């Protein structure tokens, strides 16, 4: 059964004025520049950080901010600014890996559900409902504790438990787009189903998914930070902004920057992703209005 409640926006038309519409929203542009700058800094962390990631200074434990240590030192004499830069590296790595896993699962299942339909659609819909009914954070706590603080289980668990919204978006777009004339024309000239999906339907189904992905980045960061803050996430000596917050609880009064700095970075990064998503949403809405 085909659903034709709205006309699709061709990819070429979306590309025409989409970038211009996005650039007109200044907060999103500023947020994008901030995220790009942050990614460059954390990627170049070994070269930009003033000290080694795990370098100890037992004579400078819990030192206040100074010229040598801009944000002070922690309970082991490690430079907080250095740990903050390296912590952003692992926090963003977890966020990007989580979103990539959720994106792959969501697109595959949403495509199967929306394009094939029938029993496949019912099975995927039931699977989505099942995962939405599971207490996700409890599952995350159990899985993270079983991972024993290693890095790789965290994005895997977050990604496997956060694909449902993407699958629903892809399914809804496919239900609409599979009945369009250009899709029928591709079938009539003998294109295989895989070609029809990859070349004709999926590119037009991705724009709303991309908007959802920007929100997924901030959600993955917040989940990782919450797990690390509770002591179930990535464990030291690997720094993340979440476990830096966890470690700073004890000495927060002596060195407030130890908790304030990672908390501020989490806030700024999540806000930036939300602003980017808002800019993409505005640009897509304008494209739909002009089509």
Mind explaining what this structure looks like?
This protein has a single domain (79-290), classed as Orthogonal Bundle (MetI-like fold), CATH 1.10.3720.10. It is 71% helix and 0% strand. It contains twelve helices and no strands. α4 (80-116) runs antiparallel to α5 (118-133). The relative contact order is 0.16.
SS summary, helix count: 12
CATH superfamily: MetI-like
Q: Strand content of the residues, in percent?
A: under 5%
Cα distance spanning the termini: 25 Å
CATH topology: MetI-like fold
**Helix-strand string:** HHHHHHHHHHHH
Give the biggest sheet. none
pLDDT < 50 stretches = 4-14
What is Rg?
22 Å
Q: What sort of overall outline do the alpha carbons produce when their principal axes are compared?
A: elongated
Keywords:
291 residues; mainly alpha; MetI-like fold; 12 helices
Any chance you could write out the topology, listing elements then pairs?
Elements lengths: L10 H13 L2 H18 L1 H4 L31 H37 L1 H16 L2 H11 L6 H8 L3 H14 L3 H8 L4 H37 L11 H8 L8 H34 L1
Helix pairs in contact: 1-12, 2-4, 2-12, 4-5, 4-7, 4-8, 4-10, 4-12, 6-7, 8-10, 9-10, 10-11, 10-12, 11-12
């Amino acid at each position: 059964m085909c659903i034709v409640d709205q006309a699709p926006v061709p990819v070429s038309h979306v590309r025409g004025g989409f970038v211009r519409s996005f650039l007109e929203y200044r907060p999103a542009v500023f947020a994008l520049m901030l995220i790009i700058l942050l990614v460059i800094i954390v990627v170049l962390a070994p070269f930009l950080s003033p000290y080694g990631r795990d370098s100890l200074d037992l004579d400078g434990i819990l030192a206040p901010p100074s010229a040598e240590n801009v944000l002070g030192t922690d309970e082991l004499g490690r430079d907080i600014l250095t740990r903050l830069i390296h912590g952003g590296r692992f926090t963003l790595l977890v966020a990007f890996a989580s979103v990539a896993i959720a994106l792959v699962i969501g697109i595959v299942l949403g495509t199967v559900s929306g394009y094939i339909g029938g029993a496949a659609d019912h099975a995927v819909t039931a699977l989505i409902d099942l995962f939405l009914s599971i207490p996700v954070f409890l599952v995350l706590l159990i899985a993270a504790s079983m991972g024993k603080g290693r890095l790789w289980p965290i994005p895997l668990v977050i990604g496997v438990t956060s694909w449902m919204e993407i699958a629903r978006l892809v399914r809804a777009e496919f239900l609409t787009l599979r009945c369009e004339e250009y899709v029928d024309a591709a079938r009539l000239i003998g294109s295989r189903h895989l070609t029809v999906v990859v070349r004709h339907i999926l590119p037009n189904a991705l724009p709303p998914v991309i908007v959802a992905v920007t929100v997924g980045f901030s959600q993955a960061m917040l989940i990782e930070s919450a797990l690390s803050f509770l002591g179930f996430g990535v464990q030291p000596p690997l720094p993340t902004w979440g476990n830096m917050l966890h470690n700073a609880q004890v000495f927060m009064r002596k060195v407030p920057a130890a908790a304030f700095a990672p908390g501020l970075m989490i806030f700024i990064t999540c806000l930036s992703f939300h602003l980017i998503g808002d800019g993409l949403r505005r640009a897509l809405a304008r494209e739909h209005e002009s089509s």
